[in-house]
Adenylate kinase (Streptococcus ferus), 213 residues
Amino acid sequence: MNLLIMGLPGAGKGTQGAKIVEKFGLIHISTGDMFRAAIANQTEMGLLAKSYIDKGELVPDEVTNGIVKERLSQKDIAERGFLLDGYPRTIEQAQALDAALSALEIQLDGVINIDVNPESLVERLSGRIIHKETGETFHKIFNPPAAGYDENDYYQREDDKPETVKRRLDVNISQGAPILEHYRKENLVTDIEGNQDIQDVFADIEKALSNLK
């Protein structure tokens, strides 16, 4: 079984992805892992990627796409199947992935989309606060400090502030929408309600994947 998993930051994609990999025995593929492995193994694409990274430049799409194709061509993928996480990030990458899978004669079986209301994600992602003295991390809603704590004793990182979180989500929504539309046309997308208990989310995923097998 060969899958993509999609979802906005904070939707629980990482948690559910780990559960899918464990349950179905798939190879978990993330772009970060692929880059590190390609560079460590000094593959053609890995060396090319390193040349950009060493100069502090962004790795071009054609190199990223090449690294993905390299990884998908390896023997363990053919034997076990994959869960691709964090790629494609743009419609151009989705089209490149289609071409790579076609060239490798690999079929994409489904796209699991963890669907969570962006407003609830702003609340979830912007609630993190850090104690100034100890550096201990809390969450205003899900893991608050002791009752009656003094807000002046805590701070928020810039990345955790609501306006920053909302901007990040807006970028992800605008990039993700055409990718989802692309795969919906192929009848590959299953939307999973992410605003529920972790185990309930996974139960819905299991049900969806059992229909693909």
